[in-house]
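Bench log, entry 3. Co-assembly request; chain sequences pasted below exactly as received.
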Amino acid sequence: MTASANPALPAEWRDFFALTKPRVMSLVVFTGLCGLLAAPGTIHSVLGFTAVLCIALGAGGAGALNMWWEADIDAQMKRTAKRPLPQGRMKRTDARDFGVALSVASVLLMGIAVNWLAAAVLAGSILYYAVIYTIWLKPRTPQNIVIGGGAGAFPPLIGWVAVTGEITLMPVLLFALIFTWTPPHFWALALFVKSDYAKAGIPMLPVVAGEAATRKQILAYSVVLLVVSLAPWWIGGTGPIYGVAALALSGAFLALAIPVALRRAVEGDAMKPEKRLFSFSVFYLFALFAALVADRLILGQGALS
Amino acid sequence: MTPEEEAQLKRARRGRNIALALVLIGFVALFYAITIVKMVD
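Structure output for the full assembly:
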């Protein structure tokens, strides 16, 4: 037994940093920033920075609460077994307190510095992820990824509301976009790591409903994603830069989803189409939101003053 | 507690204290900037 496995020793700062799920946060910061930049109106760059910081802190707090609650599940899966809590590098209550502190600080700072509607939506998103998703629904339904996608869909909505101070159709469409993107993105991953989730007792769709149903649903969501991603252009919320990018990216997404939907894994399958779809899905979201911001900055008026 | 464990404890505590100090300095600077921006507005 190494000294690092002794919970009596104080945790290092890196362990607390790991609790905030830094890799998930990069996507959260990016989409939150894009929502902020794409919104009509202006916000001072200091306040814009603060808004994105609050979104990141809130996501970090929610991530820490998620790891606090799921420490036992994480210990059973290869992908998550190296996290600070399953490794015994810190006390469980420290992770909980850290998560609560980050969450409360992020909401208060957002309210004081930016506006209270953005703060309220941020608080709602943290509670949604930490309580409704992590504690309540994730262990209970194979549609957990659809519900969890809702949590990841909040950042662009919050970034937008930080600028405008009101919830309109456009930020709701950005929410719907990530909401629709998450299931095919995650199920593609779940198709090639499903054994781990079965062991931990999490009812992932491929485990519960079977591979065929999962593949069918990936295709269905990809079709819906095409429609949802084009909606901001149709309602006149964006210009053709976004519209053409959405058509090309969602078309490619659908084209990659079709082989995934039509095939079945065989013994010793390399799962190439699934891995390709998963990799592309990450690129897809970055590229689409970049196009949204480019559209606003080139064709419309910028958000930063 | 062995001398190695004590050395590790001190190293971890020192690292956390430095990280916390940097975070606090960052927040002081941020709140100062926010205050100035809000007063100008």
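Residues 1-5 of chain A have pLDDT under 50 and may be disordered. Chain A touches chain B through 17 residues (CB under 8 Å).
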